[in-house]
């Protein structure tokens, strides 16, 4: 669906955070961006979601240049962001989060009904009347993704969705993301560690200081080789 060409973006025109990013998200699979703190992962996702305007380069959506689109336009086109830090509405219940978020009128992505997102995240079904701030970290993350799915996305941008979660809960979240391409949703997920990315994604890009490496095909063992060659960015034991 989305492809960037030589994309440069940042918060100040004279100090770009992202440099010449070429990213191809046309395959309906799980794509991962891996990089250390400050590499620019969030900046990239925010640029694709229309929260930041690129300073150079292109963002093509279905072949059309939509560089500098607004977040509402991105959402209408089928791009949904599940942000880092979750950003739930603290005074709304789980049920309210899921009912106030709806697909755009002429959406082209798959519609996710409330029953379907509760099937994906059964933990939320028992928490329908709890408010955002009453949920555990894992439940908040699940709700963040569930809310994004309610917009009927064609592309889900998930920013460090397993951050701070217990391994079993992180595994539940990863399982859902892994299954989304079967429903027609392309996933771009950011993760701090390459080992987790190689397990979850079909292709893995390493982002270092705002520069993106060539995609590694997780299935071909390239990512595993990268780990073995000690190019991993942080200790895999920390995952
Ligand atoms: N709102 C902002 N204004 C100015 N600079 C920012 C802003 N947000 C991030 N930055 C800077 O942009 C660079 C990339 O940050 P970004 O949050 O995109 O990295 P990241 O890879 O997502 O890291 P993390 O895993 O810590 O979130 C950092 O140098 C950061 O200080």
TrEMBL record:
<keyword id="KW-0029">Amino-acid transport</keyword>
<dbReference type="InterPro" id="IPR003439">
    <property type="entry name" value="ABC_transporter-like_ATP-bd"/>
</dbReference>
<dbReference type="GO" id="GO:0015658">
    <property type="term" value="F:branched-chain amino acid transmembrane transporter activity"/>
</dbReference>
<keyword id="KW-0813">Transport</keyword>
<dbReference type="InterPro" id="IPR003593">
    <property type="entry name" value="AAA+_ATPase"/>
</dbReference>
<dbReference type="InterPro" id="IPR027417">
    <property type="entry name" value="P-loop_NTPase"/>
</dbReference>
<protein>
    <submittedName>
        <fullName>ATP-binding cassette domain-containing protein</fullName>
    </submittedName>
</protein>
<dbReference type="InterPro" id="IPR017871">
    <property type="entry name" value="ABC_transporter-like_CS"/>
</dbReference>
<dbReference type="GO" id="GO:0016887">
    <property type="term" value="F:ATP hydrolysis activity"/>
</dbReference>
<keyword id="KW-0547">Nucleotide-binding</keyword>
<dbReference type="GO" id="GO:0005524">
    <property type="term" value="F:ATP binding"/>
</dbReference>
<feature type="domain" description="ABC transporter">
    <location>
        <begin position="2"/>
        <end position="234"/>
    </location>
</feature>
<comment type="similarity">
    <text>Belongs to the ABC transporter superfamily.</text>
</comment>
<dbReference type="GO" id="GO:0015807">
    <property type="term" value="P:L-amino acid transport"/>
</dbReference>
<dbReference type="InterPro" id="IPR052156">
    <property type="entry name" value="BCAA_Transport_ATP-bd_LivF"/>
</dbReference>
<keyword id="KW-0067">ATP-binding</keyword>
<dbReference type="Pfam" id="PF00005">
    <property type="entry name" value="ABC_tran"/>
</dbReference>
């Amino acid at each position: 669906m989305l492809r960037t060409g030589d994309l440069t973006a940042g918060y100040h025109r004279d100090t770009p955070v992202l440099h010449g990013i070429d990213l191809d998200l046309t395959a309906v699979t799980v794509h991962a961006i891996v990089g250390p703190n400050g590499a620019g992962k969030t900046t990239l996702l925010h640029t694709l979601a229309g929260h930041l305007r690129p300073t150079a380069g292109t963002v093509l959506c279905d072949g059309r240049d939509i560089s500098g689109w607004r977040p509402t336009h991105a959402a209408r086109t089928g791009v949904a962001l599940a942000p880092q830090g979750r950003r739930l509405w603290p005074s709304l219940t789980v049920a309210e989060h899921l009912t106030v978020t709806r697909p755009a009128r002429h959406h082209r992505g798959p519609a996710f009904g409330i029953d379907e997102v509760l099937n994906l995240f059964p933990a939320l079904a028992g928490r329908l009347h709890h408010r955002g701030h009453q949920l555990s970290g894992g439940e908040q993350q699940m709700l963040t993704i569930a809310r994004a799915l309610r917009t009927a996305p064609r592309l889900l941008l998930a920013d460090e969705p397993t951050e701070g979660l217990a391994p079993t809960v992180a595994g539940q979240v990863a399982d859902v993301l892994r299954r989304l391409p079967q429903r027609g949703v392309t996933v771009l997920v950011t993760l701090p560690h390459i080992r987790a990315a190689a397990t979850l994604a079909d292709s893995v890009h390493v982002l270092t200081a705002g520069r993106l490496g060539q995609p590694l095909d997780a299935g071909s063992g390239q990512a595993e080789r990268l780990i073995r060659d000690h190019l991993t960015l942080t200790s895999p034991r920390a995952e």
